[in-house]
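Handout for the seminar on molecular recognition.
Each group receives one record of this type.
Step one: identify the two inputs.
Step two: read the structure output and locate the region that could contact LLP.
Step three: write two sentences on what you found, then compare them with the reference statements printed after the record.
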Amino acid sequence: MTPSALPGQPHIHYKDSHLHIEDCDLEAMAAQHGTPLFVYSKAAMLAALAAYQRGFAGRDAQICYAMKANSSLAVLQVFARAGCGFDIVSGGELERVLAAGGVPSRIIFSGVGKTRHEMQHALQVGIGCFNVESEAEIEVLNDVALKLGKTAPISIRVNPNVDPKTHPYISTGLKGNKFGIAHERTLATYQHAATLAGLRIVGIDCHIGSQITQEAPYLDAMDRMLDLVTAIEAAGISIHHIDFGGGLGIDYQGDTPPPADTLWAKLLAKLDARGFGQRKLMIEPGRSLVGNAGVCVTEVLFMKPGEQKNFCIVDAAMNDLPRPALYQAYHAIVPLAQSKQGDADSALCDVVGPVCESGDWIGHDRSLNVRAGDHLAVLSAGAYCMSMSSNYNSRPRAAELLVDGSNAHLIRSRDTMADQMRGERLL
Ligand code: LLP
């Protein structure tokens, strides 16, 4: 049978009716490593990155992977080797990037609540830029830098007050969000920062939200940012780079975000038209680099027919896949054996995990023809799944594999109970 790829996920396909990632059979991997099991395609990650690289061909641009999307070391290593910088939001993320071979000068440090200790460490290793988010943070960073005898490179995160038209929990560029400095306060904040000896102004940044599927919010944000750059430079402060954040969405359920290169062709046309074409650019994509590069394989434990609902109880849960519980997010769920799909016997069921909460669901009203012991793949699980997983209900964190052609590398082993209890003490 000819391989048939899943929509929007060319590296994940059915071959001889069995779901494969690149050249590896997911059923075989589940048999060897157990479930729940995250499996990622290296080629899919590099293809997603290539779309951005194409978009920026011939430009002075730095792609900083927003590692909160998936911070597993081998994933970071793939992006570090491909020349990416990183967008980090904690001292822990800094340690991970360094352990994975990331180049400090290509790291930018975002986040509204950096501690003094985190600032010190980032300054000591020589990161590329602090994306500061408040006037108070500017004072503290200046103080930390002066005490270390260093100058902190900074960019100010602007809140452009643009509606990204996404879920309220992942929209960040509107007034009323905790992020960034209000558009109207930006110039005064730059003027003040320019007087502080511990700081060196290098850029300006924004990030308006996540899972954005339209171009218009980006174009609006860009206009507002460029207006600000003009005003700041007119005040005698030069802005070396402009960072437009991340946020580009992926196809979870027939979503149609613009491809990265198409989006950037439009944005770069605007930059050129406004005379900023030569400016160094930074972006911070997360989800769009890894989201559709991964699946979570889970085993059906029990089928539980009911009067109002049928339940398909699987061994993955909200601790492994928290997005449905947190954002009512949709993840497609498909059987590993294609013959099970779309059969006349398919029944509508809720796919749920073993965790003791009604919020522990992975999919509602899915048409599946499966039995206990069958395996399912939860799709689009490369971003914000493993990185947001927990040990809730004392469940072990899942294992992870990274597929490269016909090789499947174990990049994280499943938690043992010793892993889970490490650091705890009885009275
Ligand atoms: N830069 C900054 C400053 C961010 O806060 C974020 C994401 C990104 C870049 C990357 O955004 P992306 O390209 O991945 O959309 N857990 C949520 C998403 C939270 C996003 C937080 N910030 C989810 O599962 O949908």
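Reference statements: The CA atoms of residues 33 and 399 lie 8 Å apart. The radius of gyration is 23 Å.
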